[in-house]
Amino acid sequence: MSDRWFLTVDGKRFDWVRATIMGTELRALVPGLNPAFGLVREQRPLETDDQPVREEESISLDDEPSFYSVAPSTFG
To answer: Has residue 76 been placed in a domain?
Structure first.
């Protein structure tokens, strides 16, 4: 078992100390993220719709997920 887990946000790779991350922790991890923007998880396989990350959501990092930031009006 690894002591570090990884994820990507807007093409930049980050490491994390646990196998899960909360939506609020994910937002705090990304320096300079516009607070008005949302984060969206890229779904695999690509045929599935991407899903916005909720602040209270617990996200598994087992498959090294990728996220991207979006303007507030994109989802919602």
So the answer is: no
